Structure formats: C-alpha cells, structure tokens
Amino acid sequence: MNEKTKTSKYRPIRFFILLCATLLIIAVPILNNRFQFTFIQGWYQSISIGNLWFVSPLEGLESILTSRMLYGPLLVGMAIPVLVAFLLGRVFCAWICPISFLSEVTDWFIRILSRKKYRKTRIILPRRMLWASLVSEIALAMIAGVPIFVFLSPPGLVGRELMMVILFKTVAVEGVIVLAVMAMHLLSPRLFCRHLCPLGGLLGCIGAKRRLYVEFNVENCIKCGMCSKACPLALDPKNGQALSAYCWNCGDCIDSCKTEALSFKWREIKVNDENTNHKVNVKSNHSHQNPVSHSL
Amino acid sequence: MERREFLKGLILPIAATALPVSPVRASLFQSPIKTNVLRPPGAVPESLFASKCIRCGRCAEVCPYRSIVPRDFLETGVNAGTPLIDVTKVPCYLCMKCVEVCPTGTLRPIAQQETRMGLAVIDRYACMTWQEGEFMLCRTCYNVCPFKEKAIKLDELRPVIIEEYCTGCGLCTHGCPVTLENGKKAVNIEPIYAFGKVRKE
C-alpha cells in the first residue's frame, strides 16, 4: 500500500532544472543590459560561463560541414555536450531545452483544464522520422551552403528572441517557428520533439550506447501500463523501448511506476563482460538485482 | 496543418536553391553587407560568413555599445541572426570584445589596429570642406578617428583617409554632420575587404 502513495522523485527535480535553465536565458540578457554582466553569456546554441564555453553539437557540426573548416575552440566547445550526450543520452532535451520547459508548462495547464493526468497521442508517426529529419537537415544545410538549423532551431530561437526583446526591443520573424512547435505540441504531445527535432536526433544518435539508462525489472512489473502513458515520447519501457536511442532519460516512467519496476541504472563497461565471458552470469545477476539499490 | 507550415519553412531554403535565378533566391542568399552596413572586426570573408556563423548572438550580447545588431529572416534571408553593424546608427568603438567570444572562429581574434571592417571614403561632392568657393571648417571625422594622424590626416584643413591604416570602424561616418538624401554621409565605409577571397592577416 505504501507504494501507491509514492511521490514523484525525478519530476520535481527535472522541472526545477528546466525552470532554472529557462530563467537563466531570460536573466542573462537582462543582467547584461542593466549591469553589463557578461560573465555568463549566450543561450543553448553557445553558452559561456567565464572561460568555459559550450557549443551545441549540431550547430557546431553544421558550421564545420558547411564551411569545410575546423576551428579548435569550436571542437573544444562541442566536447562537453557531446560527452554528456554520450554518457547520459538525450538529457539536454528533457532536462534543459526551453522548448521542453514550454511544453511542460503547457501540459500543466492542460492537465488542470482537462483534469486528465496524461494526454493522448493524436498523431502517430514512425519514430524513425527523427533520424530522417537529422539526415535531411544536414543534407539540406550542405546543399544550401548555410547551416539551416542554426537560425531555425526552436531551442536556439527561444534564446535569440529573448535577447532580441531585451537588448533591442524587437522580435525576429523566425519566432513563428517556436509558435509552430508549440502548436504542434497542442495538436499531439511533443510532436516536434518525437519526430522532427534534428538536435534531438543527433543527441540520441550520440547517446545510443549511453551509460545512464532506465532499467526495467520484470519481476516487479504488474503490467499496469502507466509507464508508457507517462512517457512524453510515447515509448514503452516495459517492452525494452527505454533502452532505445530515443529515450531521453527524463524519469517520468520511473515516477509513474507504482511497483518500482523501473529505475535509473549506470551501465558498467561492457568490455569486461566480453573479456571474461561471463555474459550469462551477468544477465542472471541483473534479473536478481534488488530494485531498491538505486545507483543514482 | 501546423506541421505542414513548419515543413514549408524548412523547405523554403532548398526550394530557393533549386530555382535558377529568381528574386527569392537573390534576396534569400544575398549578403546583407553594403556601404555602412558591416561585419564586426575580424570577420571571415562574406563567402564564408553565413556558413561558419552559428548565430549564437554572443558577439551581440558582449558588445557594450550595442553596435552589433542581428537582423531577422525577412531582412537578411539566410543571414538571419548574423552580426551586423550599421555605422550610421552605432559605429564600432573597436573594444575587441566580440572577437574574443566567437566560438566558431567566424570573428577571429585580431588586434585593434588590424581590424579591416571596410574603408572610409570621403565624398568630396558632399563634404563641406571640399566645396569650391565657400570654405567651411569641419573636422569632425578627424576629431573622432581613433587613429588620428595615421588613418586620417588633414591636408590644408581638409580630411584625407590613409587607406593603409583605416580600420573601417565608422566613427567618422557616425560623426559626420552631412546626411544625403539616400541616407549616406559625406564619409562612408565601403566594405571593400568583405568580398575578397583571402583576407589580409
């Protein structure tokens, strides 16, 4: 009975981080405008904290591909985001992206108005569209000779529009893309994030063999199906879809699970398993693992 | 419907490339650089700029004078979000902060005096000191130039630009009291270096 009153563990943390990430890109231009504060700069296309620079991997990749030039600082700036995606998967999408924040806020309002806990997916498209979107976007950029995602990327545009409003008191017309993405979200939850976002595609690609993943413990599962309802990407964790490259490790399924059949796990390096040839043992260990022993 | 509209927005650039030479393509891919509308210091040539710049806006954010202003898609096509300086509005004061923050090398770290945003060109038909007959004393451009006696000199009280040293910062253009009907000044910055294949290091 205790399990039924279980509170959400990751959702409040995630929402708090999303809120902070969005407040950051609002606060930075305001501080800049008022107090000439430039210690933290930029938004999620390129952000700098002092001398620590981050560059969004897709924007950097497009810049390299379309200009056919390598620039050291750009590669260094891309290193940390790529490493994070490699180890943790598409966590940027779920934990930082301002579009995610806007979507969550929209969902929150919809939940209050409709009094339903979960929204239904109205438009079902093939999941692989995400890769097609990534490939076609890069191809398009290379054909046109300009990095297209850099000025049409919804997460980046949120930051740019905020800067334009705060620093120059105007808005750029590209902002309609953010509105379009939000309209798509109203139509069907996370329609853009699920099927069209090239950045999500790239991060998912990099994080296909991520270390942090949602583990499913069959023994605890009562097949209530709450996890697949809770998943913003409409994945089905109990059928192993949480291990796919699409999962962005938001932890909503873990929170929704009443029997603790799902948990975050840190994948150990596989090389050891193969070297010692104890694959069978490792597998059986996994199934006997106590779900309470969270590694995170 | 919204998705279709969004896709349309994505498809527009490629549709425009597919068209032979059309007004859409011309305006979409054309460089916004022209007289008095310049790139920040240390910029790569225009042929590379749109492809190298990731529109992160950090140069615009760091600029303490708000000289650097990104423009939107309607105005500049694929150059949307790239940094532009309209020297008639706010000139560049050569603080060199923008070149230090560019993460992509689109603005390369260079020294102040090596900046070549363009070249100041005096319109002798418009400049007050160059008029025949009535002589008027004005040396605003000379006074505001950060490289006085190097980039600009006075020849019998008339300003003369020394091409070798002019950085094209636009302080003279901004200060010039003469404004012509077409919005130009008696001294204008011509972006003569922006379209070269190789930029002088």
How does this structure look, described?
- The complex is a heterodimer of chains A (296) and B (201).
- Chain A is mainly alpha-helical.
- Chain A folds into two domains: 205 residues, no CATH class; 77 residues, Alpha-Beta Plaits.
- Chain A has 15 helices and five strands.
- Chain A has a three-stranded antiparallel β-sheet with strand order 1-2-3. Chain A has a two-stranded antiparallel ribbon with strand order 4-5.
- In chain A, a hairpin with a 2-residue loop joins strand 1 and strand 2.
- The two termini of chain A are 24 Å apart.
- Chain B is an alpha+beta fold and 201 residues long.
- Chain B has two domains: 28 residues, no CATH class; 160 residues, no CATH class.
- Chain B has eight helices and seven strands, in the order H-H-E-H-H-E-H-E-H-E-H-E-E-H-E.
- In chain B, strand 5 and strand 6 form a beta hairpin.
- At the A-B interface, helix 1, strand 1, helix 2, helix 3 and helix 6 of A face helix 1, helix 3 and helix 4 of B.
What does this entry show, briefly?
The complex is a heterodimer of chains A (296) and B (201). With 296 residues, chain A is mainly alpha-helical. Chain A is built from 15 helices and 5 strands.
Walk me through the topology.
The complex is a heterodimer of chains A (296) and B (201).
Chain A: H1 11-35, E1 40-43, E2 46-49, E3 52-55, H2 57-67, H3 72-88, H4 91-95, H5 98-114, H6 129-144, H7 149-152, H8 154-168, H9 176-187, H10 191-195, H11 198-206, E4 212-216, H12 226-230, H13 252-256, E5 262-266, H14 270-276, H15 279-288
Antiparallel strand pairs in A: 1-2, 2-3, 4-5
Helix pairs in contact in A: 1-5, 1-8, 5-9, 6-11
Chain B: H1 2-18, H2 23-29, E1 37-38, H3 46-52, H4 58-62, E2 68-70, H5 73-76, E3 83-86, H6 98-101, E4 119-122, H7 140-144, E5 152-155, E6 158-161, H8 171-175, E7 187-190
